[in-house]
Amino acid sequence: MEQEEMKAREEAGTRKEGIAQPAEERMEDWFTQELSDFEEGEVVQGRVVQVRGGEVLVDVGYKSEGTIPLEEFTRSGTMPKVGDEIEVYLEAKEDNDGLIVLSKDRADKIKVWDTVSRAYEKGVPVEGRVVEVVKGGLAVDVGVRAFLPGSQVDLRPVKNLASLLGQTIRAKVIKLNRRRGNVVLSRRAMLEEEREERRRHTLSVLQEGMALTGTVKNITDYGAFIDLGGIDGLLHVTDMSWGRIGHPSEIFQVGDQVEVVVLHFDKETSRVSLGYKQRSSDPWEVVETKYPVGAKVTGRVVSLTNYGAFVELEAGIEGLVHVSEMSWTRRVRHPSKLVNVGDPVDVMVLDVNKATKRISLGMKQVEPDPWGTIDERYKPGMRVQGQVRNLTDFGAFVELEPGVDGLLHISDMSWTRNIGHPSDLLKKGQQIETLILNVDRDAKRISLGVKQIQPDPWEVVAERYPVGSRVTGKVVRLTDFGAFVELEPGVDGLLHISQMSDRPVGRTEDVVNVGDELTLVVIRVDPAERRIGLSLKELAAAVEGGEVKEFRGRQRRRGRGEYDEEEEE
Q1: Are residues 394 and 330 in the same domain?
Q2: Cross-strand pairs, 34
Q3: Would you tell me how many other CB atoms lie within 10 Å of the CB of residue 55?
Q4: Are 251 and 290 in contact (CB under 8 A)?
Q5: Is residue 201, in this structure, part of any structural domain at all?
Q6: Domain end: 453, 486, 518, which one?
Q7: Residues 501 and 410 grouped into a single domain
Q8: Distances in whole angstroms, Cα of residue 341 to Cα of each of 135, 237, 252, 300, 301
Q9: Which of 436, 448, 439, 438 is nearest to 397 (CA)?
Q10: Range of the domain at 319
Q11: Within this chain, do residues 549 and 474 fall inside the same structural domain, yes or no?
């Protein structure tokens, strides 16, 4: 056993020197090392000679081996194997069993501290894992526990420090106190150095006209700032697309990787203007060839305004369909009545202006104009069926066929009724029969009538009710100036208050009431004005004295449904 031990120590001595030595010289070196080279508290090189139970036997070239608890290896995640070369810490030269006392944990910590110290002295970054959010920042495991202040985490303030938990980061050591075990890190300092290095490189290679890839850093109303590598460039909204853009966020989001073209570079101010649409040729250069006047094309509605709809024909090419070019027949007040954003539409190219980058489009031109042959299908005097499409204060629009409406004016709805609103007679969606009164192809108007289907009762009024004749009618309405008396359905006459008595009358209701049936004399007929004048006074003048009084009383009683015995006989 002693011989094997001696041989192992000789080999260890030989390995340490790195050269072959005679046995006598190795023995002398060994004793010298035993007496002076090994000091407690040092880190020495050793070799695993045996793994047994819960400990590892390590030969460091001393007269005896040392043992290390196996758990010190398992904590570091590495299992030792016989022959492994490791660094260990010499805690004591001999214990009660004559073995030296070693520690891998303390050796690892000393090694880490040496690494951290060198990184601090040389200004190089160290790598560690974020293990905890602490007051004011983060705790980072770099082999020893280090503190990363919140202000030093990134180039910009980080609102959610917990999002970095578990991540492996690189940072510079900005403060170190080995005796007290304090390490302060700065990731920001490292990032600033990296950014400055990238900036110098970018400035050295940047040229107008070159294409490069950057990252969208910020978005504003007027454009987007692109990080080109330590230097930011402005991509203005006008240089994002050959077409129209409402806001940069319609195309880009923060963090997007985009390929851009350098439009202008000022070396003195380091300002860079970028372009995105310039990656491809301007589609307007060939627009007149691709979209000639009269061509029928399909596009997509991209926006609506009060005056029309913008239709995208291809990326960067948009045209306007004015509201007046949307329908042959309908008066379009707003484009949303016919189309919505995103709708595919068929249009015709009406005009192309390459200089101003404007295209005029039409939707109605894709379909034949129904008014072109309207006078062949509809002639005055024809009876037609239609559906009430809309009601207005002045009449009703009646759809005769898709795209063709006629106007039924309120004055052409009834010969006799005084209509306040078309809804008094009609309902939206109702099917009605009308008579065509007039067709104007140029003005795209058709006039309709309902009352004209029936004869006008006023055409024979003068014959039926000549002046001087006696008529009988019922009081249907009272006014301050007289009473309207219905002579037959649709024909009313006016009994003016001055014609009620040969004496002054204060109020109409002092003489007559609604519902009274009266016999009167026709004193005036005007078919053109649709008026008949009636008189009770003239009737009274034709009857003698007491008969008149009796006659008037009988008239009033009859109107109220009262009769005396003489009348019944």
Answers
A1: no
A2: none
A3: 15
A4: no
A5: no
A6: 453
A7: no
A8: 52, 22, 21, 8, 5
A9: 448
A10: 283-366
A11: yes
Residue-wise pLDDT for 458-487, tens only, equals 777 777 888 888 999 999 889 888 999 988
Would you call 240 exposed, middle or buried from its count of C-beta atoms within 10 A (0-12, 13-18, 19+)?
buried
Tell how far CA 285 is from the center of its chain. Answer: 32
Joined together, the tokens standing for residue 488 give: 């037959």
Do residues 50 and 59 touch, judged by C-beta distance below 8 A? Answer: no
My answer on whether 101 and 139 are in the same domain is no
Specify if 196 maps to a domain.
no
Residue 374 belongs to a domain with what CATH number? 2.40.50.140
Cα dihedral 464→465→471→474 (10° resolution): 90
What residue ranges of the chain have pLDDT lower than 70?
1-42, 62-64, 74-77, 89, 91-99, 103, 105, 416-418, 542-569
Q: What is the pLDDT of residue 553?
A: 58
For residue 568, tell me if it sits in a domain: no
Distance from C-alpha of 323 to C-alpha of 330, rounded to nearest angstrom: 10
Token pair in block for residue 150: 């919140």
Cβ proximity of 45 and 60 under 8 Å? yes
Q: Are residues 435 and 471 in the same domain?
A: no
Q: Would you say 317 and 284 are in contact if contact means Cβ atoms under 8 Å apart? A: yes
**DSSP sequence for 313-379:** EETTEEEEEEGGGS-SS---SSGGGT--TT-EEEEEEEEEETTTTEEEEESGGGS--GGGGHHHH--
How many domains in the chain?
6
Residues 190, 191, 193: CA angle, nearest 5 degrees: 65
The 10s digit of each residue's pLDDT in 265-317 is: 888 888 889 998 888 888 888 888 889 999 999 999 988 999 999 999 988 88
Nearest to 164 by CA among 131, 186, 142: 131
Strand partners, 453: none
- Whether residue 290 is found in the same domain as residue 343: yes
- Measured in degrees and rounded to the nearest 5, phi and psi for residue 170 equal -115, 135
End-of-domain residue from the set 453, 486, 512:
453
Question: Residue 550: what pLDDT?
Answer: 55
Residue 155: inside a domain, yes or no? yes
The answer for residues whose C-beta is within 8 angstroms of residue 437's C-beta and 6 or more apart is 380, 412, 447, 448, 449, 452
